[in-house]
User: Which sequence fits this backbone?
């Protein structure tokens, strides 16, 4: 910046014709249409800003929903691991019991067969041989009783219509799984369904961004168009924006209603 | 109103309008790509989740199948134990009956029947016994129990492939979004600069957008692998049948399973003609056939593009004699995984087959280094299986190929060095060995007795005598006996006890006689092959596994087939009998001490008369041979053969031998079998008879 001393200001030399100072023209009164147009441009600019901010908000929601979906996925995997662990643990216990049960049945079966033969021999008067068999019956019955005492879950030993003892494998597995399911999440399918729902919600929200981009396109066209079509563009743009808002609201409300 | 002023001063032109529209359109396109990327990402996550879940389920199923199998094996074990008890009781019954004790025989039979009944109940406890499809064939059952686990594994692999495919799509869309950002930047930049250059920016931006459009279409239509479950089930069935081959009890079962596996893989391929793993598995089963080559090619084409597929394809080309293709594929495999030594050995083999000795030397050098750097069990497998077996096969085809012979010896020396030093490098030594002389015995001067290269059946020892020089006490050596080409006995000796020079012998001893066939001995000193020789033994190639039997009560000892049932009946008239399972063949031996004056010849004839009378009671049409002299445990006795029909209507053949000492000790041996089985069982009877010893003849 430079300073000019007033003394240094050159005076116009005498006799020199000085230009006539221009008379400032009165500014022409702005046309009414032009003023409207500028106002509309401002309004459209504001709408563009609103659409952009809405787009950012929707993107944030989609990201949040996506994150929740990933959490549900992880929870599902954890449930799957728990389920396999619990099932394997129960199978281990089951097979321990089944081994003992097999031992019990084998000894009981032998005792029963010996008993039948001992009775026959007794009826035939062969008492010495019968007594020998009765002693064996006692031995096998003791072995069977001893095995039965080692069963962890004797309540699953059932008797079928023919009076044969069986082990209710399905009953044991269902009951033990039901008990375990009370204290921990063993159903990954619920979590996976929730994850799928959230993934879908997220995808739909990302779809809304496309609609907002359409709104942005038409508002931009309206912004750069001077004549009548700009109103059509504004209308389409705003319609697209409103549609995006409505669809977004529907998606969120639907998600909330499913959640509760 | 600054903006208005600017607007007035710089009114927008058509260029600016166009660029603004392009910016908006590009933004819209970018949003669309973002949507597609989001969709691909979600699909990738879901596929990855499925892969993880299937992996967890597969592992769980595998553990549970293993638990179930453990229980099934337990029941099967009980069932077999009870069968053994039943057989024992039945054998006892037969023994009692031979003794004439019908009541005891009946009791034993009743007990056998009870065990049979108990086993009937046990069959309800496991599918191995109750389902006739398995017929106590637990190999197939074992594999079948893992079916669900295998299916989950297949689903996991599919889900993993889908994860990769969706991941690739997602990555592609992200790249497009990035390029669109460049386009947006160019469009924006074009608004800030004057002149023609701004048009260049716009054109480049438009070019990028158009390119991204084409690229997006390409990505969108990229296929994601899918597979009908039916195809996977067929594949799993093939895997089960294929794995069960190793459990097959005989070649017929093996072939049946192989064909069943091939059929299952073919069905999987029919349902999904792009099932790479099914082609690969089928190719493996078709080893050595032209179809194996086409299958491996298809496997590689449809995604099984790994070291094993290329390596195995190379091997198939080798077997087909197409050495150039074999070389190409094997080189590909070696490049893919230089640590997979088996294909390095194959490479050397192919070069040898092609007559390219120098390259073969280099390839075998690398292969041996590779094997040496491997885990000990893998190293041994590489040397024995991947190297030696194939080299020996090639040598059989190309007998005059000295390069092959050289590598056979080198690999054998590497094996010897491993046995002696723990590494593959033979050491330098001054030791030298001469020719090997084989003999059935050596004398007190360690010289061979009756040297021969042909031993008679029943020979239990083969001595190998050889001269040596330059040996030192710390020189280790290694001997390998081959029977019909396969290693029968390999023994490392860490030190030498035979002095610096002289003659030394080593021997091969089979208590029950050397198996018949071709034998070869190789002797390595310090890991170097120093001597080798060959001989043959007459007789059958396999010897039954025998066990010792000793009876202090009867003063008897003999060896008998370990699977035969042994029954001892104590007492004055007792005996010991050995029953062959699932047949009527038996070998019975007893000793009786007579009191008073005994004339051996008369006693022998008396026993024979009593035996013949018993046989005539059983079947009046019994046929006897003439009595012949027979030496039993160095005592002269008498022998006769007979044939009769037993109570079951079976035609039985037998041989009765009795020998009495002057001290009144009587030795009796008699053997019996169904007439149509007798000849086959004679070798068992002879082996038992040859090992019979008595403590006081």
Assistant:
């Amino acid at each position: 910046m430079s300073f000019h001393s007033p003394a240094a200001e050159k005076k116009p030399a005498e006799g020199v014709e000085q230009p006539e100072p221009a008379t400032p023209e009165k500014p022409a009164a702005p046309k009414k249409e032009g003023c409207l147009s500028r106002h509309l441009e401002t309004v459209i600019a504001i709408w563009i800003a609103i659409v952009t901010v809405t787009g950012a908000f929707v993107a944030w929601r989609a990201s949040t929903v996506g994150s929740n979906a990933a959490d549900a996925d992880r929870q599902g995997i954890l449930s799957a691991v728990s389920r396999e662990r619990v099932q394997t643990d129960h199978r281990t216990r089951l097979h321990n019991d089944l081994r003992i049960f097999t031992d019990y049945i084998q000894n009981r079966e032998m005792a029963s067969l010996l008993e039948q033969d001992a009775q026959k021999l007794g009826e035939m008067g062969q008492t010495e041989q019968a007594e020998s068999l009765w002693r064996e019956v006692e031995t096998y019955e003791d072995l069977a009783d001893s095995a039965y005492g080692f069963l962890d879950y004797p309540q699953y030993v059932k008797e079928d219509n023919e009076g044969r003892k069986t082990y209710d494998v399905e009953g044991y597995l269902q009951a033990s799984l039901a008990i375990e399911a009370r204290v921990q999440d063993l159903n990954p399918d619920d979590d996976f369904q929730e994850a799928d729902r959230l993934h879908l919600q997220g995808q739909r929200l990302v779809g809304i961004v496309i609609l907002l981009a359409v709104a942005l396109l038409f508002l931009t066209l309206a912004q750069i168009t001077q004549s009548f079509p700009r109103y059509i563009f504004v209308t389409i743009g705003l319609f697209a924006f409103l549609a995006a808002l409505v669809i977004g609201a529907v998606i969120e409300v639907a998600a909330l209603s499913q959640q509760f | 109103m600054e903006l208005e002023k600017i607007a007035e001063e710089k009114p927008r032109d058509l260029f600016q309008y166009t660029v603004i529209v392009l910016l908006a359109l590009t933004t819209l396109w970018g949003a669309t790509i973002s949507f597609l990327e989001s969709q691909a990402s979600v699909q990738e996550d879901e596929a990855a989740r499925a892969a993880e879940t299937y992996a967890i389920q597969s592992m769980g199923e595998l553990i549970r199948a293993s638990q179930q199998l453990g229980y099934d094996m337990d029941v099967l074990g009980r069932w077999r134990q009870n069968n053994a008890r039943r057989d024992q009781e039945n054998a006892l019954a037969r023994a009692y009956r031979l003794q004439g004790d019908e009541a005891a025989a009946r009791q034993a039979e009743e007990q056998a029947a009870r065990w049979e009944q108990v086993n009937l109940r046990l069959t309800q406890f496991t599918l191995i016994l109750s389902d006739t499809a398995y017929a106590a064939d637990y190999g197939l059952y074992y594999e079948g129990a893992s079916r669900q686990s295998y299916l989950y594994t297949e689903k996991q692999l599919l889900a993993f492939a889908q994860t990769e495919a969706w991941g690739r799509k997602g990555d592609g869309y992200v790249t497009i979004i990035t390029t669109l950002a460049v386009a947006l930047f160019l469009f924006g930049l074009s608004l800030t600069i004057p002149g023609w250059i701004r048009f260049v920016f716009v054109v480049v931006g438009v070019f990028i957008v158009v390119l991204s459009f084409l690229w997006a279409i390409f990505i969108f239509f990229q296929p994601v692998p899918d597979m009908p479950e039916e195809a996977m089930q067929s594949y799993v069935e093939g895997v089960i049948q294929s794995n069960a081959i190793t459990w097959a009890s005989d070649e017929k079962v093996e072939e049946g399973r192989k064909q069943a596996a091939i059929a299952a893989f073919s069905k999987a391929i029919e349902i999904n003609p792009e099932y790479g793993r099914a082609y690969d598995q089928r190719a493996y089963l078709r080893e050595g056939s032209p179809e194996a080559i086409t299958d491996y090619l298809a496997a590689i084409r449809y995604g099984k593009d790994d070291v094993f597929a290329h390596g195995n394809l190379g091997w198939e080309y080798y077997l087909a004699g197409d050495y150039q293709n074999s070389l190409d594929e094997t080189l590909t495999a070696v490049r893919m995984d230089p640590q997979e030594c088996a294909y390095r050995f194959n490479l050397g083999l192919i070069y040898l087959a092609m007559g390219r000795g120098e390259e073969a030397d280099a390839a075998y050098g690398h292969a041996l280094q590779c094997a040496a750097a491997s885990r000990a069990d893998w190293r041994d497998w590489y040397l024995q299986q991947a190297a030696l077996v194939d080299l020996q096969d090639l040598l059989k085809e190309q007998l005059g190929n000295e390069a092959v012979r050289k590598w056979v010896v080198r690999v054998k020396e590497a094996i010897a060095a491993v046995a002696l030093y723990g590494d593959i490098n033979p050491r330098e030594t001054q030791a030298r060995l001469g020719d090997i002389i084989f003999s059935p015995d050596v004398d007190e001067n360690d010289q061979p007795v009756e040297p021969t290269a042909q031993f008679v059946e029943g020979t239990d020892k083969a001595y190998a005598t050889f001269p040596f020089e330059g040996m030192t006490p710390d020189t280790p050596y290694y001997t390998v006996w081959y029977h019909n080409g396969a290693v029968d006995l390999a023994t490392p000796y860490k030190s030498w006890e035979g002095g610096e020079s002289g003659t030394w012998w080593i021997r091969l001893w089979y208590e029950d006689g050397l198996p018949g066939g071709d034998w070869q001995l190789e002797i390595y000193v310090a890991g170097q092959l120093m001597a080798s020789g060959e001989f043959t033994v007459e007789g059958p190639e396999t010897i039954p596994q025998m066990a010792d039997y000793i009876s202090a009560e009867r003063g008897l000892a003999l060896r008998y087939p370990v699977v035969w049932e042994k029954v001892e009946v104590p007492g004055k008239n007792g005996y010991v009998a050995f029953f062959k399972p699932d047949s009527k063949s038996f070998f019975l031996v007893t000793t009786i001490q007579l009191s008073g004056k005994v004339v051996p010849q008369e006693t022998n004839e008396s026993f024979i008369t009593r035996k013949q009378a018993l046989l005539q009671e059983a079947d009046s049409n019994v046929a006897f041979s003439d009595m012949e002299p027979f030496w039993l445990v160095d005592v002269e006795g008498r022998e006769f053969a007979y044939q009769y029909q037993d109570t079951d209507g079976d035609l039985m053949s037998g041989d009765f031998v009795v020998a009495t000492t002057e001290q009144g000790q009587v030795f009796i041996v008699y053997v019996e079998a169904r007439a149509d089985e007798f000849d086959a069982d004679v070798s068992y009877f002879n082996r038992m008879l040859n090992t019979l010893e008595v403590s006081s003849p």
